[in-house]
Amino acid sequence: MSAPHAQVQRADFDQVMFPNYAPATFIPVRAEGARVWDQAGREFIDLTSGIAVNSLGHCHPALVEALTEQAGKLWHVSNVFTNEPALRLAKQLVDATFAERAFFCNSGAEANEAALKLARRVAHDRFGPEKYEIVAAFNSFHGRTLFTVNVGGQAKYSDGFGPKIEGITHVPYNDLAALEAVVNERTCAVILEPIQGEGGILPAAKAYLEGARALCDRHDALLIFDEVQSGMGRTGELFAYMNYGVVPDVLSSAKGLGGGFPIGAILTTEALAKHFSVGVHGTTFGGNPLACAVASAVLDVVTSPETLSGVRERHARLKERLEALGAKYGLFSQVRGMGLLLGAVLNDEWKGKARDVLLAAEAHGLMVLQAGPDVVRFAPSLVIHGADLDEGLDRFERALASLVQA
């Protein structure tokens, strides 16, 4: 019999954890579907999905089954060997996308790190060491490693860690002329989020992504799509690039790929993948059988026509209600995004107060997110029940009413 767990509370965070997060005042301890309960038994509706991670909600039966079955078989063998779940998952991803090869890691940052290293390696092998420059967008977010945080176009995350990585240029998002002005023969890659997530839930214009594709083709550069947040059914297609009809050279995935279990991946063609020959790049835990078994089950559910059509239906329901609430309470100037990744943009009067909205929602038993100080972000489970979505929005309305009346 195992020893009883020590009692912990929110105050312990400030005593034993690094202070780089400011978590909510309550501690979730149990969840099912879109409902979460804290230590005191208080119930919340979750419209965050762990920041677009719990793509099928909490404790989805298919994922619980996949994890527990694999847990009784094989946990870890390292990449000195391969394993069945990793091969099955790679086949599924290749069959469902433009890709011919998959590489597995553990997070979105690692996936983007691998994608950017691959781009530099390909350019080095094909054209020589001078072709190493990377173009990214301001307000982008690609992870927290030193490389990815420098590529992400937000100085608040990259300043204060010593010299910046060389050869990275940032341009305004959705501005094709700005992109055209900087992409040249030294550019090895352009990396873009089809929908800027942390930057405020900003979808790319179709012509922008088409133009980026043409520029990369013209200058022998790779087009990398960071689909860590926008992928895995979040937009109503398996990956957001499918909505645009613009195919990248490399695609990064994580977050929703594991449905709550840590896993990341990059997808690309055989011709590009071969530049990661034996020993060029690696990871201890990437391709872990537990993670791959769960992700395989996630893909089975997400790729079903019912799930993807359900995302589009829920999108219409969520957006319509948010726009109505924005008009009624005078807080939002617009609601933007795709599928079940939506941002309610605060108007001038409420600018900078996204956290106030989050706290009001928490007080009314609702979990929502922000995307910067001016946008309230919604990323519910792709399979959230209509009744839970409606109840969550009812609670959100009560939260808005309390703010307006304060």
Automatic annotation (TrEMBL):
| Entry's cofactor comment | Binds 1 pyridoxal phosphate per subunit.
Mind telling me which InterPro entries this protein's record contains? Ac/SucOrn_transaminase_bac (IPR017652), AcOrn/SuccOrn_fam (IPR004636), Aminotrans_3 (IPR005814), Aminotrans_3_PPA_site (IPR049704), Class-III_PLP-dep_AT (IPR050103), PyrdxlP-dep_Trfase (IPR015424), PyrdxlP-dep_Trfase_major (IPR015421), PyrdxlP-dep_Trfase_small (IPR015422)
Q: Which residues carry this modification: N6-(pyridoxal phosphate)lysine?
A: 255
Keywords linked to the UniProt accession:
Amino-acid biosynthesis, Aminotransferase, Arginine biosynthesis, Cytoplasm, Pyridoxal phosphate, Transferase
Superkingdom classification of source: Bacteria
- The answer, when asked if Transferase is one of the entry's keywords, is yes
**Which cofactors are required for activity?**
pyridoxal 5'-phosphate
Listed binding positions for pyridoxal 5'-phosphate are 108-109, 141, 226-229, 284
Report quaternary structure and partners. Homodimer.
Report the sequence similarity comment from the record: Belongs to the class-III pyridoxal-phosphate-dependent aminotransferase family. ArgD subfamily.
Q: What is this protein called?
A: Acetylornithine aminotransferase
Upper lineage is: Bacteria, Pseudomonadati, Pseudomonadota, Gammaproteobacteria, Pseudomonadales
